[in-house]
Design goal:
alpha/beta; 8-stranded mixed beta sheet; 5-stranded mixed beta sheet
Length: about 325
């Protein structure tokens, strides 16, 4: 028999199937369970479509009566684009609800659990809470602060260089690293670059090689040359001007919850200097470019090491010939 924690991990695995497709909603997974055995699964597929709980309940049908429901996020009790999940749970005859994260949305926080308890449904909250919170951390920031989660991505040499003096940067990273970036693009709502990167590299900024992949919104800071590939590829390209905080707020108003910043050096430097980033994913390739090559972090640093921007490394992994370092701001 599966434990509540094991079942919640299965619900989290189901939630990953909606990652990158649900904005401005969170990605959520749900299971209908009887005596530790999974009867049905469901995940939120897209804003406007049924939430994960409803998908799992519909798949279970009459078997849901008297069963348990596991869901990674507290069920909603308000009318949005879809009816409240709490009403579907009550109507299905669910006996117990286990959920991982509380919902920080002021329209939802605590209301769902209270509504279910009033209907006689037993509630167990905070099951595997740390893992559920981590899964939807970007959405929590979006819903509480009104700005997207920002991840900086760069591929650099061992001596921290982004490109040769000529501007050539193809290719610093290995093929497995580049494939991984396409997977990330599939999972992010938007990908952002500076106009200098568009002029230098003429990137597509699309998802390629991922079955069922979905290309994110392309955001370019500055003027884009006519004929650039970002303007000719399927999907939307947004040209933005102005300060970064205002741009992030405008993206949030469009429902963009996550942004992958792919450069170049001045754009990365601006996000670093303004402390507007949440995570850094740095591919370090076994190459040396020399003193005249371009640094990836294009900002004027302080005079003293004690004043340097600090980060904490949270993960390291080998990807092909490269090392992928993941870091968070030290705030």
């Amino acid at each position: 028999m599966n434990s509540p924690e094991e079942l919640m991990r299965l619900a989290l695995l189901e939630a990953t199937r909606g990652r990158g497709r649900t904005h401005p909603n969170p990605a959520v997974g749900a299971l209908v369970v009887r005596k530790g055995r999974v009867l049905s699964r469901g995940h939120h597929q897209r804003a406007g479509l049924p939430h994960a709980e409803v998908v799992a309940l519909r798949a279970a049908g009459g078997r849901a009566r008297g069963a348990d429901l596991y869901v990674t996020l507290e069920p909603c009790a308000h009318h949005g684009r879809t009816p409240p999940c709490t009403e579907a749970i009550v109507a299905a005859g669910i006996r117990r609800v286990f959920y991982g994260s509380g919902d920080p949305n002021p329209h939802v926080e605590g209301h769902g659990a209270r509504r279910l308890r009033r209907s006689g449904i037993e509630i167990t909250s905070a099951v595997l809470r740390a893992e559920c919170d981590a899964f939807n951390e970007p959405w929590f920031k979006f819903i509480t602060r009104g700005v997207p989660w920002v991840v900086l991505k760069a591929a650099v040499t061992l001596d921290g260089k982004l490109a040769m003096p000529s501007g050539d940067s193809k290719w610093i990273s290995s093929e497995p690293s580049r494939r991984l970036v396409h997977l990330w693009r599939d999972q992010f709502d938007a990908v952002l670059v500076g106009a200098g990167t568009v002029r230098a590299d003429d990137p597509q900024l699309t998802v390629r090689g991922i079955p069922g992949g979905r290309s994110p919104l392309r955001v370019v800071l500055g003027d884009v040359p006519q004929g650039a590939r970002v303007l000719r590829e399927p999907g939307e390209t947004l040209i933005e001007e102005g300060g970064l905080p205002a741009i992030l707020r405008r993206l949030a108003r469009r429902g963009i919850t996550t942004v992958l910043v792919e450069g170049g050096a001045r754009v990365h430097g601006s996000f670093l200097k303004a402390k507007l980033w949440d995570e850094l994913r740095l591919f370090i390739a076994p190459k040396l470019a020399g003193a005249s090559a371009l640094s990836w972090a294009g900002f004027e640093g302080p005079q003293n090491m004690r004043d340097a921007l600090e980060a904490r490394i949270v993960a390291c992994a080998q990807v092909g010939d490269d090392i992928l370092v993941t870091a968070r701001p030290l705030r």
